Amino acid sequence: MRDEMTQALSGHNADYIELRLEELDTNHISMRGHEIDDIGGSTSRGGAARAYVNGAWGFVTFTQADNLRERVATAVRQAHLASGEGGELVRGEPVIAEPAPVLDNDPFLIPLDRKVNLLQEYVEAMWAVPNIQSTSIGSGDRRRVTHFANSEGSYIRQERVDVTFRARAMARRDGDVQQYGVSVGSLGDYNILEGRHDEMREIADKAVALLDAPQVEGREYTVICDPILGGVFAHEAFGHLSESDFVYENDQMKEIMVLGRRFGGQHLNIVDGASVPGLRGSYDYDDEGIAARKSDLIREGVLVGRLHSRETAGKMGEGVTGNARAMDYRFPPIVRMTNTFIEPGTATAEELISEVKDGVYCKNWYGGMTSMEMFTFSAGEAYRIRNGRIEELLRPVVLSGNVFTTLENLDAVANDLDMNQGGGCGKGGQSPLPVSNGSPHIRIQNCLVGGA
Amino acid sequence: MTQRPTDADLAMLERTLAYARSKTTAAEVFVSEAESTPVSFEAEKLKEISTRQTWGLGIRVFANGRMGVSSTNHPDKVEELVDRAIELARYGPESELTLPDPSPGTPSIETYDPAIEEVTTEAMVEAGRRLLDEAKPLEPEALYGANLTYSTSSFAFLNSNGVNFGHRKSGFGLFVSGTLIRGTDMFFIGEGDRGCSPDWDMQRHIDGMRQQIEWGKEIAPTPAGHMPVLFMPRAVSSVLLGPFLSGINGKTVLQGSSPLEGRIGEQVFDKRLSIVDDPTLPLKPPSRSYDDEGVPSREQFLVQDGVLRTILYELQSASKAGVEPTGSASRGLGAMPGAGTTYLTIEPSDASFDDMLHTMGDGVIVERLIGMGQGNVLGGDAGGNILLGYRVQGGEVIGRVKDTMLHCNIYDILKDIMAIGAESTELGGSLATPAILCDGVSIAPKSDSE
User: Fold this and answer.
1) Cα separation of B149 and B134, whole Å?
2) How many CB pairs under 8 A join A and B?
């Protein structure tokens, strides 16, 4: 494979060229109620060639890995057609590597009947709770093997296995439907799916409890986020802003995201890094062949770094960070997060809560989205806090805000960092990309909470 | 671009089906293929020209009363593909569905415009430059980008009852966007459309951008409370339609989690609201002669004068519900088919835009939200952070709102609509809708914003 790829890359006229050949295998099972609703699998092979000429790219994807040289030539031709005003790409030393995959318990080796039985047991556990109207549950595995070669002489073979699991219970009374769920994942470890019977029962209990919960009054509150929601906050509210492809060609954005700018208090530290081992966003090399590392984004409240591809780093005169990622061969690598988290402080979660007079405690999540300046994310579970005590359960809430004011309003960070591996990130039509995010309990003053 | 599906593809389908039939009670096979050429401009510069090609073979088998699916893109591994689907079917959903028989006389719907063959990458690059040249003077301080694509795709399908059809599609899309940053205020604007035919008309996109800039350049204070909100066509699509479409999905209804269960024939919305799903319109991207399971396409009311008319079913959910399938199946490689809509039309009514502003008095116009699809969507909850929206005071647009959350329940606010616009806008080549003015929408501003 290596020789074939090296040969296809040689003798073209471009500033930089890379070629990826990939094998993708997926399996999924999903159940609605007691029945299997979908069971299937796919296997595909494909590749992508990408060439850089004077600040522009040519990019070609294909599913038949023949005529590799011609595929590369097409990418080079397109890059010349697009090329214009020049650009600086960070060059690297050749890397020859074949890192061992992280496979603690390979889901592709688990027999299908065992996977199906586990889901069936979980479904039974949820239905043991009275007033459950319906359930949905699913698991999926995805293996991606990448052969990467570039015009610098690199050849890297990597294999990643992504495991996901989700479960949701819906309770209904008259026309009112309420739901509660969980979503988890891992890098190459089927074990995370197992032993969740009690949790399934709790999910169902919570869905039923939501039927009696009041809706929060829409206004500002002091909000405590649990580690899962805090992680979503780190990802949505700040993480996307640190992706340099939004910044590198926009002078106004550069001004906003100038290194040294204060975003929050001394207690605020945010990092991202694929070299943090064993998480869903972990890898050895990114899809441009750059070694993974861990990058400080905010240190003691001050912006100190950002996430880069070869191109954004070159253009901004900063170092590469190994954050150029592609979903698979159908897509070009773009700047993405990996494992993003808020570092722990010293207080306990109880201390954070005890100081809140009028607030909302938000846990778990449905999702989130950002438009750079504004973000929004939703909590699957929320409780009212009064005078330092957690009180009644509320209907799910949506939190929203302006990243600049909200980071300033993040006034306390607890000591209980935990990583959430249940999410996937979407950007530029590439979704869901495996990432993880995490946080300790955090407190945000004057946070807008949506309700009816 | 190669003419697809090729004879080789069709021969492979026949071979795969024959092998599957020898081992199962029934089977469907299909090949789906696409080639697209996206051209993207970033920060007013040409950034990337791509050619993206995909090809895949999918199968569903029925054996011992159960079904399984699998897919591959190895043309030489069809036996493996079938065997894997059979293995998966051992655990697959129980099914008593009957595959459709051939339906001779089904009209052929045109979805391929040969004019796509005349489009060149150079012409797309040129069009992109022109789009940016025309956008720039609208607000010279903003930074613009553009995405242009042309594509062809095909789908060919066989089932063991002898259904055999294929269709080809052409695609063309233009999108332009702009970002204006002042201080930490970020103002995002954008327009664009796609269809089956090359459409080089840029004026309507430029006009749309001009309007957004005119209304949104100044920031207005946001009101708070429950008030009238004018959902512009884009917001009708993303805010109001989402929960409804998940509610009319047959699987959701069978599961008992749709608030629309058992309500066909009932008045669920305002009398003036009618929604039609029509896959038979020529040269619309979602159009097709047959759905992805071989059921002939037909035009149908989802909602007629506010009365719920249809729940959407693919074969499996139709069989379980004991009803006829609605020709709504769509499928991807390696997954069971699901039910969905095709080209939706929300029928316009009589209100001019100025009438609606006047009726609204004080309120908000919403164009784009972020953070949709969160909360209790099935229950009809819709909301999010207003990414692009405007404050209306005394019937006049006075500026852009920001740091503002919108929240509503579509089953409440669409029961008694204030007004439906007289003019329709087409979005993404798959929806035509007027703007809709609703009352009682919750708007929550953030008080400490600039």
Assistant:
1) 19
2) 258
